[in-house]
């Protein structure tokens, strides 16, 4: 299977920018500081030239990500093991490998699930392992029916309201070099991919769930998450969690208690 290696020196300024984008208390990061969990999304940019960018704003498949002929991409979920600290201001490598390509018939047509494994290595030590699932689907048909989503009746032990603005989505796209137009281009999101408005990034929701777990006493060792429904800009949402024997189970509720993401934290020492 294909392999790709990206090098980065982990500029502390980019961590400071991520801190601001996430709306956290002001902090200036410096060389030698530890990178907070999941903030590696701001590094190891895949820098594609303009002729390599597809209609959706992503680098075109066919080099590292294999081409399936299916144009609509979604970051469906992932599983992460946080193994050793990642230190800012030092060189690191992200080694990515395609694990599997599963093409099948879904409820709305053909789709392909592409599983990608990432490792971040610094000073010869593996700091993080991540399995990422990307879903590719057929082109949007305006005649296709609206999908149905799950809603929850479960009451959380911990809850926190969140609201994502268009500016925050744009800034998160910028700091992660995510060109997917569904996150900042409303006409494309609506007419090109069938959403009601621009869509909150799956990784941004996952980041908020990790931070929420940490605020409620969890030292994250493992984290897994799955996107289950879109959350669009300025839709009120609630971060929810219940404690488990080994950590915490979390989810994001949108309007009418629509479940937009589910997740689980395994705590250090569990």
What does this structure look like?
This protein has helices at 12-21, 166-176, 186-193, 202-215, and strands spanning 3-8, 72-82, 92-106, 109-122, 125-137, 158-162, 220-227, 237-243, 247-253, 259-267. With 270 residues, the chain is an alpha+beta fold. Strands 1-3-4-5-2-7-10-9-8-6 form a ten-stranded antiparallel sheet, covered by helices on one side. Strand 4 (109-122) and strand 5 form a beta hairpin. Helix 1 packs antiparallel against helix 2 (166-176). The longest helix is centred in the last third of the chain and has 14 residues, at 202-215. The two termini are 34 Å apart.
Structure summary, number of beta strands: 10
Indicate the proportion of strand residues: 35-45%
Ends distance = 34 Å
What series of H and E elements makes up the topology? EHEEEEEHHHEEEE
Please give the radius of gyration in angstroms: 18 Å
Helix-strand makeup class: alpha+beta
> Oligomeric status of the shown chains?
single chain
**Rounded average pLDDT:** 95
Please give the share of residues in helix. Answer: 10-25%
Tally of helical segments:
4
Shape: globular
Poorly predicted ranges: none
Report the major sheet: 10 strands, antiparallel
Q: In order across it, which strands form the biggest sheet?
A: 1-3-4-5-2-7-10-9-8-6
List keywords for this structure.
4 helices, 16% helix, 270 residues, single chain
Provide a short characterization of the protein structure.
With 270 residues, this protein is of the alpha+beta class. The chain contains four helices and ten strands, in the order E-H-E-E-E-E-E-H-H-H-E-E-E-E.
């Amino acid at each position: 299977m294909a392999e790709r290696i990206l090098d980065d020196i982990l500029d502390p300024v980019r961590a400071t920018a991520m801190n601001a984008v996430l709306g956290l208390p002001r902090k200036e990061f410096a060389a030698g500081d530890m990178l907070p969990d999941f903030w590696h999304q701001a590094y190891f940019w895949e820098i594609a030239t303009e002729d390599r960018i597809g209609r959706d704003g992503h680098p075109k498949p066919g080099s590292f990500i294999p081409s399936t002929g299916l144009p609509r991409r979604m970051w469906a979920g992932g599983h992460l093991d946080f193994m050793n600290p990642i230190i800012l201001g030092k060189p690191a490598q992200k080694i990515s490998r395609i694990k599997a390509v599963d093409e099948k018939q879904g409820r709305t047509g053909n789709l392909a699930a592409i599983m990608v494994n990432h490792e971040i290595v610094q000073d010869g030590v593996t700091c993080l392992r991540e399995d990422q699932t990307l879903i590719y689907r057929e082109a949007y048909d305006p005649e296709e029916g609206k999908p149905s989503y799950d809603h929850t009746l479960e009451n959380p032990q911990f809850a926190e309201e969140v609201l994502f603005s268009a500016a925050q989505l744009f800034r998160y796209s910028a700091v992660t070099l995510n060109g997917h137009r569904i996150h900042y281009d409303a006409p494309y999101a609506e007419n090109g991919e069938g959403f009601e408005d621009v869509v909150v990034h799956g990784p941004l929701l996952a980041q908020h769930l990790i931070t929420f777990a940490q605020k409620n006493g969890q030292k994250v060792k493992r984290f897994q998450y799955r996107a289950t429904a879109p959350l669009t800009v300025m839709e009120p949402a609630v971060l929810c969690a219940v404690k488990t024997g080994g950590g915490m189970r979390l989810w994001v509720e949108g309007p009418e208690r629509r479940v937009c993401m589910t997740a689980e934290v395994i705590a250090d020492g569990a």
